[in-house]
Design a protein that fits this description.
The complex is a heterodimer of chains A (about 425) and B (about 290). With about 425 residues, chain A is α/β, with parallel strands linked by helices. Chain A has 14 helices and 15 strands. In chain A, β11 and β12 (about 365) form a beta hairpin. In chain A, α3 (about 95-110) packs parallel to α4 (about 120-135). Chain B is mainly alpha-helical and about 290 residues long. Chain B is built from eleven helices and two strands, in the order ααααββααααααα. Chain B has a two-stranded antiparallel sheet. The chains are: A alpha/beta (about 425), B mainly alpha (about 290). Chain A: InterPro entries: BCAA_transport, Leu-bd, Peripla_BP_I. Chain A: Keywords: Signal. Chain A: This is ABC transporter permease.
Chain lengths: ~425, ~290
């Protein structure tokens, strides 16, 4: 259904751009004419998980958010807009790196995408970064957490807009430790993601003056966490950190809630999204602390945008939806400023730009590693939800510099 | 020492649940000779149906404990009538493959309908909290689930060994020709036994709902542990499934306590050792091996 709509849009856009190109000559010289654009239009590619575990977090609703950005851009510049024809193409990478790789190629080569957005899942995200580098086309990642995008795998055409695992660790581990939660025990799933999370959390807890008594590896996947939780409660910790994701996280939290540690020990979660809370209900997660890159009900500005989003989708936006909006809008602003959709020119406009918008507060597109740094938030799950999706109390705003730290020395733009 | 007792109790609590979950697998294999790979998917269906009953119809845990097994019984009857029955005469591998395929269909169907993020479920009223004795404590729900499981296992064991129905069922499978000669319609008993096994899987799913993640994939990992349980206990042996369920629960708890990384591996090491020493499992009949 959706792909058909997209096809229809492509057809209409193609016809319209032909007509525009034909009229272009008669329209008189104009500095912002469509001739400065490759293929006379700007194509934004949305490549994400449209059927699996991250569908609710980002998925098809991110196309709605990007369309909102396009509408806002057109409304702002009207006739002066450099990009008059803007088109969205989207594809499902099914969380597989090989599919992401071939879809990205298809988007850049055949669908003439000028920029690819989103791409959750770290392996898929890194595959697309390589494509962007080879094709010299822009890529703004939102959904993936890996620090390699702004580290060893960074490149001139890749930007990382919303968060990374280092931010989650600095946010959650740093803030809770400084607030008095100094003695930690960590349980992590025994595979690459869990081991990384364990390392970065341990590092941040120690840096903030705390200690990690035990780091316990659990087999992945696992159903029965009762004994893991008992073990994690030994040594009288103030905080138990769960580095699990998905089904393992839900198992862990449910069984933690049935243990005597509930209410006595702070439960900190490494990676959690508002969609996890929505699917399990607030009472299961009540009191859990985690780092959120953005929350829709944080202030009036966010709320107003969330209301617009709800009018179109009948649901509240996740941070990924807001970040897709912000990335698309700032990309179009950069095209406007550059007067062209040439990737090098647009990247030059973005680099070093300081941004305050609905998603980015005290934001800056850091030139050194293309991390888009901004304030993030330590959130605590409410015990009662006043309305659907109103699940978080923001405990603390973590300033951009503190959340992101120094640029990764492993990154060389070359 | 109190820690050791704590781990032991947690192992026993998990073991009771494993025993019930593996019971249906043992019953179906013991009576029909079918290795039902879809047992994990049926366990998942039990949990998903409970969550849907609660979320959409506000039907609580206690009702689900009765309604879900009945629904799953009907599902099992359909499965046997429409699919499994036609392959019974062939090599057991055919039904193994059939039920494996069915697992994939069921898991994908649930993903399509209910997504991948998991469904919410609450601990039933009165079963929240913990029971604490000295420095040892267990969650009330875990104790309930374990005791309930043991009661069901004993009841099923008695049903099959001490009642007339159980006698007919056993005779129908062990000596079908002779049983037929005595005027008993053997074919009539196969379908309800299969349905009964599936109902037990659904019942385990209901018990799992308050304490585990309810997702389409929840049975995919679990079925592997259940196979370890029935192989250790002896395929088809009900007593074996119960004893092995507790054994696996204990081994897992000690594994987590003293060598967390190897917690699941130790279960399969135990399985390998048992198969090496007694190929038919602890309580298996020789011909099963």
């Amino acid at each position: 259904m959706r792909s058909r709509t997209v096809q229809g849009t492509v057809a209409i856009a193609a016809t319209a751009s032909l007509a525009l190109a034909a009229c272009g000559g008669a329209g008189g010289p104009q500095s912002s004419g469509s001739s400065k654009l490759t293929d006379d239009k700007v194509v934004i590619g949305l490549l994400n998980d449209q059927s699996g575990v991250y569908k609710d977090l980002s998925g098809p609703n991110s196309a709605v958010a990007i369309q909102m950005a396009i509408d806002d851009y057109k409304a702002k510049y009207g006739d002066k807009a450099v990009a008059k024809d803007i088109e969205i193409v989207q594809a499902d990478h099914q969380n597989k790196a090989d599919i992401a790789n071939s879809k990205a190629q298809e988007m850049y080569d055949r669908q003439k995408a000028d920029v690819i957005l989103d791409v959750p899942n770290s392996a898929a995200a890194l595959a697309v970064a390589t494509q962007a580098k080879n094709k010299k086309k822009l890529y703004i990642n939102i959904g993936a957490g890996t620090t390699a995008l702004t580290g060893a795998s960074c490149n001139k055409y890749t930007f990382h807009w919303a968060y990374n695992t280092g931010v989650l660790a600095r946010g959650t581990a740093g803030a809770i430790t400084k607030a008095g939660g100094t003695r930690w025990n960590i349980v992590y799933p025994d595979y690459a993601f869990g081991q990384d999370m364990n390392k970065s959390f341990t590092k941040e807890v120690t840096a903030a003056g705390g200690t990690v008594g035990q780091s316990i590896a659990s087999p992945f996947p696992s159903d029965n966490f009762a004994t893991f939780i008992t073990k994690a409660g030994e040594g009288n910790p103030k905080v138990i950190g769960s580095m699990h994701a998905g089904g393992d996280l839900i198992n862990f939290v449910k069984q933690f809630n049935q243990s005597p540690l509930k209410g006595k020990v702070t439960l900190a979660v490494g990676l959690m999204f508002i969609t996890d809370i929505h699917s399990l209900g607030v009472d299961q997660f009540a009191g859990t602390q985690f780092t959120d890159p953005w929350y829709w009900n944080f202030d009036a500005q966010n709320k107003a945008w969330a209301d617009r989003f709800k009018a179109k989708t009948n649901t509240r936006p996740s941070f990924a939806h807001a970040a897709n909006y912000s990335a698309a809008l700032n990309y179009l602003e950069a095209v406007q400023a550059a007067g062209t959709d040439n990737a090098d020119a647009v990247a030059a406009q973005l680099e070093g730009k300081k941004i305050n918008d609905v998603f980015l507060r005290n934001g800056e597109v850091r030139k050194a590693d293309h991390a888009v740094i901004h304030d993030v938030y330590l959130a605590k799950v409410k015990s009662k939800a006043p309305e659907d999706w109103d699940y978080e109390d923001i405990v603390k705003t973590i300033p951009a510099a503190e959340a992101y730290g120094a640029p990764n020395p492993a990154c060389s733009m070359g | 020492m109190s820690e050791f007792i704590q781990y032991t109790l947690q192992g026993l609590a998990a073991g009771g649940f494993y025993a019930l979950s593996a019971l249906g697998l043992a019953v179906i294999f013991g009576v029909l000779g079918v290795v039902n790979f879809s047992h994990g998917a049926c366990y998942m269906l039990g949990a998903v149906i409970s969550a849907v009953l609660l979320g959409e119809l506000h039907v609580g845990f206690w009702v689900a404990l009765v309604v879900v097994p009945i629904l799953m019984f009907a599902f099992g009857v359909l499965m046997e009538r429409l699919l499994v029955r036609w392959l019974l005469a062939l090599d057991p591998l055919y039904n193994f493959l059939l039920t494996f395929g069915l697992t994939l269909v069921l898991v994908e169907a649930v993903k399509q309908r209910y997504g991948v993020s998991g469904l919410p479920y609450e601990v039933p009223a009165g079963l929240g909290g913990q029971v604490t004795v000295g420095s040892v404590n267990l969650s009330t729900y875990a104790i309930f689930a374990c005791l309930f499981s043991v009661v069901v296992c004993v009841a099923v064991g008695l049903l099959l060994t001490k009642t007339r129905i159980g006698m007919i069922v056993r005779a129908s499978t062990e000596a079908p020709e002779r049983t037929r000669a005595l005027g008993i319609n053997v074919g009539r008993w196969v379908t309800p036994v299969f349905g009964f096994g599936i109902a037990l899987a659904g019942l385990a799913g209901v018990l799992a709902a308050p304490t585990r993640a309810i997702t389409a994939e929840m049975g995919s990992n679990f079925i592997i542990i259940l196979f370890a349980v029935v192989v250790i206990g002896g395929l088809g042996s009900i007593l074996g499934a119960v004893v092995a369920g507790f054994l696996v629960g204990l081994v897992e708890a000690y594994g987590i306590a003293y060598a967390p990384t190897y917690a699941q591996i130790v279960i399969f090491v135990l399985m390998a050792l048992v198969v090496l020493v007694r190929p038919s499992g602890l309580f298996g009949r020789e011909e099963v091996a």
